[in-house]
Design brief:
Keywords: NAD, Oxidoreductase. By secondary structure, this protein is of the alpha+beta class. The chain is about 35% helix and about 30% strand. It contains 11 helices and 20 strands. The protein binds flavin-adenine dinucleotide.
Length: about 375
Amino acid sequence: MNHILVAGAGPVGLTAALALARRGFAVTVLESGDDLAAESRASTFHPPTLEMLDDLGVGDELHERGLLSPTFAYRDRTEGLVAMLDLAVLGDDTRFPYRLQCEQSKLTPILLAHLREMPGFAIEFGFHVTGVGQKEDGVIVTAADGRAETGDWLIGADGAHSATRRATGVTFDGITYPERFLVASVDEELTGWLDDLASVNYVFDPVEWCVLLRTPDHWRVLLPTPVETPDEQEFARLDSRLRGVHDPGRPWRVAHASMYRVHQRVATSFRTGRVLLAGDAAHVNNPLGGLGMNSGIHDAVAYATALATGDDATVWAATTDRRRIALEYVQSVSHQNYERLRATDPDARAAHLDGLRATAADPALARQSLLRSSMIASLRPVPA
Ligand SMILES: Cc1cc2nc3c(=O)[nH]c(=O)nc-3n(C[C@H](O)[C@H](O)[C@H](O)COP(=O)(O)OP(=O)(O)OC[C@H]3O[C@@H](n4cnc5c(N)ncnc54)[C@H](O)[C@@H]3O)c2cc1C
């Protein structure tokens, strides 16, 4: 039985570990933290990701903790609802024709609980990967505290600042957006304030575009924030910006708020010898469209499937294919989402909104659009 090391116990590393363990591999996960990360970040699971997690035996538990979101909405700050897209038109394309709204911090404990029942599974917390060495038939991974682990392969799923990626000398090309994204989780019920809300709402505006997302615990408001202002200043004016979404005549109840720098970057190679990069270690993108974690989970399952063949060329093909999808699909769709939300040219904006209304009104057009936004088209050929 091959022994596979996985750096990082985020959603991607633990999915890779479970997909490998289900295929009979011994797996050791090396995680720098003392426990699983509690930060919520990703909150949208797309249909193909739900299929993969269900195939791994964790679908029911994830559904119990999440909210079904059969529709999502495009809105305009001033006009209100522009178009409501209904994933029911994907009924023949997937057994999960909806998004599931659930924080990534709810998925990782489920994955770990299942892993702990698998023979040959181990996890080392407090293992901060600093070095990766390779021989022809294996890898040795070293930690800051001097610990070392050997395996036949290493999957680097240690996030955007991946030590695995840096240790293998792979560069991370791309751009950093000038704006930062401010995400506020609020203890408010937005459906009482705004008409025609779905659980996921993309709100167009040339100046103050935003995203309104429902998670099981909160509504979240994502706002763009200039790069040059100090964080404290942005947090101080958050309430006035939230009151621009709706003014309840009192301050919004904000549970917590976080500021993120946002990048579009893809590693120059997803494979170096016996080291494979997955998830944010391999590619990062803006959160508009909810593609980052989802595509990382797709990497994890693709690598486990390829490694199970025992065929080196198949493993190369999987990493090459996942990099192609990161470039051609994830980077392109997420950047397009960003450009459209903030478009300033009135004619281009009007044409885009008209296009969205026409798409929502025509089931065939809606299906084509949803096959792409739900990531199904990134993974398999779809019948017309
Ligand atoms: C505001 C926001 C909203 C988002 N919304 C969505 C969404 O709705 N849908 C979506 O698909 N994506 C979304 N994303 C992106 C998503 O959060 C990431 O793509 C996802 O977390 C990537 O998972 P990962 O397992 O690759 O990396 P991470 O979640 O970053 O996990 C990496 C793990 O590796 C560990 N680690 C780091 N360094 C080391 C080391 N040297 N040694 C050992 N372990 C290490 C970390 O402690 C961590 O546990 C969002 C991101 C943000 C910021």
